[in-house]
Amino acid sequence: MMLSNRTSGRPTVGSRSSSSARRPALFVPVKHVSRVAPLRAQNEDDEPSTFGKNIDSKGAGTSFTSPGWLTQLNMLWGGKSNVPVANAQPDDIKELLGGALFKALYKWMQESGPIYLLPTGPVSSFLVVSDPAAAKHVLRSTDNSQRNIYNKGLVAEVSEFLFGKGFAISGGDAWKARRRAVGPSLHKAYLEAMLDRVFGASSLFAADKLRKAAAEGTPVNMEALFSQLTLDIIGKSVFNYDFNSLTSDSPVIQAVYTALKETEQRATDLLPLWKVPGIGWLIPRQRKALEAVELIRKTTNDLIKQCKEMVDEEEMRAASAAAAAGTEYLNEADPSVLRFLIAAREEVDSTQLRDDLLSMLVAGHETTGEGGRGRGGGGRISASTTAFPNILPHPSCSMQAEVDAVLGSRLSPTMADYGQLRYVMRCVNESMRLYPHPPVLLRRALVEDELPGGFKVPVGQDVMISVYNIHHSPAVWDDPEAFIPERFGPLDGPVPNEQNTDFRYIPFSGGPRKCVGDQFALMEAVVALTVLLRQYDFQMVPNQQIGMTTGATIHTTNGLYMYVKERGAAASGSSGVAGGKQLAAA
Ligand code: HEM
Question: Could you give the ipTM of this predicted complex?
């Protein structure tokens, strides 16, 4: 089914900015839907809003149910604001910060419109943005040398203990220099090498792990499986290191989960003791996290040391020559990011190198909230995980048909196949629209600013871009709750991104701080789904309570269980050929 997108001349949340009007977006927005307030600043002459509560001249909410004293202390708008305030109680917020915050953000968007203020404490608040034009403005003005208005704010603060000086959280010139150095490591030749050697091989290994469950008819927690698979993949791709996460509980993996859990808790701590210098080791929760970071850093340092011993002058000369010629350097025996960076001989101290690699490792796995619950559970992998339950009941499901048609007798895709797996790609894209991870992006205003629509942003204001709201807004997408891979246009058209949707689709963010691993991530998800669907049929375990929660990313509360069944001999590749290679495991 192809969706016809509709347009309207009215200025709504989904309306185009003047620049995009000159260069039309590829995926045209839908027309105004009355459930969401139009993007429009409120001023003194306006009728009282039916959508949100204004801060009145005394600074308190106009409704007795609004946050009262909290709002009053939040007089960030100089006494009379043009920004509606979410009708949230302090207790709601405390509770919600530990749970599915993105769902509450959606509810407040329905009540207060696409731009509203969410008080979170006596002197703290978030300006919540659920409008593509405003999101575009903020994201494009982050670490932008021409227009530097925002930085990563709270994210950088709460994860500094883990990432150190890593480029995922640093800013300004330091960030720019490191992004320029590390970004090229994920070049086209690297991705081609990864597709076959890592994405395909690790997915085949994961498929093999399912055989026992298929034979015994026991349900499999697919979220845990995908989480382990991505960790396996990111370890090999970044460090050429085998975490062996599909078969064992590595202490380093546990340490990563523990540290991520701590960043999550720091983001929601009402009493941020972690800000007090020197007391971290005295507080059990923080001590545990600091010990975890020590282990992660030691492991990373050891891997850097080993790699340095392998790289000789000749390799460094080859890497420099490739850089000078503008070609892509790849060590055939070890195409990892670590090897690339060491061979490229970047003038950088080893702490910086370690922290940048950790940025790649953690941002590349992006799993949260499972620290105390053992292995598994990952937000990021929901691109693949959520594709399953969404697609299986889909009457026109042609994902498996496409996989069979493209792969023939092969068990995993080649690079040429990858370009043909267009419906699988659309299913991944659509899953990331419905379940964006992270569901929110945080920024902080460095100077006073004004959002499109005239909303004032004071210096120091924390801004929360709700990717979830933008992706689910009926003012932005037709039938937003439905899983419709075809909504992005013809299959032979471009893969949707923030540019060709004019920031209506931003799972990888946008602007200068956009995800550096987007192509890696899409390829990884498509390959993993393809390999599994090639060999197995999947069926949801009926009546399970999946539940969704969020920290830095969306994940399930109870896992996502499915029955797996091996497909017939022809479908499961009786030739035993995987990506052109003979399979040992299958
Ligand atoms: C489905 C998978 C992924 C999703 C949804 C995702 C999403 C994101 C998002 C939204 C950001 C920007 C955050 C912001 O604007 O504040 C980001 C940044 C980043 N991502 Fe990803 N990512 C994924 C996979 C990966 C992978 C596989 C890698 C590495 C191989 C990676 C490395 C990074 C790094 C290093 C940054 C920081 C970039 C910078 O600040 O300059 N990501 N990611």
Answer: 0.99
